[in-house]
């Protein structure tokens, strides 16, 4: 009778695969259960032990930075577009990310509280600042709108998401809230 095959410990050779599996699992778990989901759930979903997770990401914030770096890079790429409507595209994506992955916002909040020296809290405002004046000059948004106003509205969107009972209600409520604000935010 053949002996069952054992999977061998591949050690360092498995590190890139493990890292990718952890990041994929963290994205799913954060989206489903929020930023404060147990890290053990992420390790289990990735098919690795907690020690492997902590070897790659010593803290929740380290893991969240790695997960959401792709989002920040995407937002910065949108902001780098020379189009007048880049702000509208950026804003649309920020709202989508806030609705779909509220953990993205929770990570920013945690970073601001625990790592005040990090620049992560400045990356989104910088992207808004790079795009907003062009949209205003093109008459696409209210000329009096400031970067601080945009960030405040994004925080309001997060508040709607955080207090919604389910994802469907969150999306519907966000669209309704933004429709109420459209006369204030849109072109004059």
Q: Point out poorly predicted stretches.
A: none
Number of domain modules: 2
Mind telling me the C-alpha Rg?
20 Å
Write the H/E string, N to C: HHHHHHHHH
Overall pLDDT metric: 87
Tally of alpha and pi helices: 9
Q: Determine the N-to-C terminus distance.
A: 80 Å
Q: Considering DSSP H and I runs of 4 or more, what fraction of the residues is helical?
A: over 70%
Q: What class would the helix/strand composition place it in?
A: mainly alpha
The counted number of beta strands is 0
Strand content bin: under 5%
For the biggest sheet, the summary is: none
Question: Which tags fit this structure?
Answer:
Arc Repressor Mutant, subunit A; 188 residues; mainly alpha; transcription cis-regulatory region binding; TetR/AcrR family transcriptional regulator; Homeodomain-like_sf; 2 domains
Report on this structure.
The chain has two domains: 12-58, Arc Repressor Mutant, subunit A; 59-185. It starts with 14 loop residues before the first helix and ends with a helix. It has helices at residues 15-33, 39-46, 50-56, 60-79, 86-100, 102-114, 120-137, 147-162, 167-185. It is mainly α and 188 residues long. It is built from nine helices and no strands. It is elongated and about 60 Å long. The model has no long low-confidence stretch (mean pLDDT 87).
Task: Give a quick precis of the structure.
With 188 residues, the protein is mostly helical. Helices cover 72% and strands 0% of the residues.
């Amino acid at each position: 009778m053949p002996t069952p095959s054992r999977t061998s410990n591949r050690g360092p050779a498995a590190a890139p695969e493990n890292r990718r599996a952890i990041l994929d699992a963290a994205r799913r778990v954060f989206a489903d259960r929020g930023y404060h989901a147990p890290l053990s759930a992420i390790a289990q979903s990735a098919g690795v032990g907690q020690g492997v997770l902590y070897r790659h990401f010593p803290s929740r914030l380290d893991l969240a930075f790695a997960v959401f770096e792709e989002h920040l890079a995407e937002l910065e790429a949108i902001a780098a577009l020379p189009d007048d409507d880049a702000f509208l595209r950026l804003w649309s994506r920020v709202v989508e990310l806030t609705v779909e992955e509220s953990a993205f916002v929770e990570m920013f909040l945690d970073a601001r509280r625990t790592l005040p020296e990090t620049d992560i809290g400045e990356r989104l405002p910088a992207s808004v600042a790079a795009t907003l004046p062009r949209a205003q000059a093109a008459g696409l948004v209210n000329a009096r709108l400031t970067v601080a106003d945009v960030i405040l509205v994004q925080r309001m969107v997060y508040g709607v998401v955080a207090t919604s009972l389910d994802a469907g209600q969150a999306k519907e409520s966000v669209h309704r809230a933004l429709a109420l604000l459209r006369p204030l935010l849109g072109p004059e």
